[in-house]
Specification:
By secondary structure, this protein is α+β, with helices and mostly antiparallel strands. The chain has a domain of 45 residues. Helix content is 34%, strand content 21%. β1 and β2 form a beta hairpin. 4% of the residues are buried. The protein binds zinc ion. Zinc ion binds next to loops.
Amino acid sequence: MKTKKTEYKASAKAIREKTYKPKTEPTILKCTNKECNYEWEYKGKSPFYATCPRCYRKINIKKQLKK
Ligand SMILES: [Zn+2]
C-alpha cells in the first residue's frame, strides 16, 4: 500500500510538470519561402499556423517543429 501511494504521487508530479512546462525553449520558426528564409521567434498562440512577419506567408508550425 505504501509503495503504491508513492508511485501515484510520483506520476502525478510527472503529469503536473508536463502540463505546466515552463516556456524556456523559444519556438523558432523559419519561413518556407526560399526567397525569404526569415527566422523568428514565434510568440503567437496558434498551434498550427504562423504568418511570416517579413513576407506574410503561412507557416505550418507543426511541420516545422517535427524534425
Ligand atoms: Zn517569409
